[in-house]
Write a structure and sequence with these properties.
Length: 272
Amino acid sequence: KCGFNTERLRTILIALYIIDLAGGTLGVIMMSHQLFQRRPQSVMTVIIISLLVLHTFMLLSIPFRLSYYILQEWKFGRFACKLASAIIYLHMYTTFMFYVAIIIIRLFRLEFRKCYTTTGVAAVWLVGALVVTPVLFSYYGTSRTYLSSECFQFHKEIQEVPMVIINYCLVGILVAVCAVLTVIQLSVIFRLAVKYWPDINSHVEFRAQAKSFFFILVTLVCFMPHHVFRVYYIQNCHLDKDHKLLPYNEIFLALTAMCCLDMLCFIAGIAH
C-alpha cells in the first residue's frame, strides 16, 4: 500500500500529477513544434531545449507514479522505483540551475557565444549522468529494507546523518540563491519602473526584466514550499510513527513537477 492515511490527500496528489502530465506534455509538444518551425539560433534556445529534454524525462515517469497512487501498489520492481524517485529530484535541481542561468544572463545582460553555452549545458548533463545519477543510485534506498509492493517510502533514509546534512545544504543553497536573485531582480524592475514611468510597458528593457522575474516566481511557487516543508519533515519524521507526514511531503514534491508547465508560458509569450 502507498501509505496514504486519507483518501482526500491521495486524490489531491493524483490530481496534481494529472495536471503536471497533461499540461507538461502539451507544453513540450507545442514548444518543440515552435522551435522546429523557427529554428532560432541563440544562447537561450540551447537552455530551452535542455529544459524540454528535462521535462520530457520527468513526464515519462509520471504515469508510473499515477499507477502507484491509483492502485496503491507498486508493480514495476525496485529498480524502476528508484529511477522514478530519482528522476523527480534530478529534474527539480537541474531545472533550478537552468532557471538561475536564464535569470543571471538576462539580469546582467551577459552575452556568450553559443558554443560556450552548449559546452556549459553539455557539462551539466555529463555531470548529472556520470556522477550524480550513479551516486544517487548507489545510496538511494539501500540502507533500509522495503516491501516490493511499496515505493517512494524512503522516509527512513532521511533520518541518516549524511542525508540530513545533504538536505539542509540543498535547502540552504536554494533558499539563499532564490532570495538574492529575488531582491536583485525586484530592485532592477523598480529602478526601471521609476525611470520609464508612466510608459513602462512600451520599453523593451522593462518588459525583458519583468519576463525574467517569471522564473523566480516559478521557483517560489513550485520549489520553495517543498524545501520549507522538508526542514519541518526532517525535524519531525522520527516522531511520525504513523507516517502521517509522508503524504504531505509527496504532495509538495508533486508541486515541484508543476514547473514543467513553464513551456505553456513560453508559448504564451511570457518568456522568449
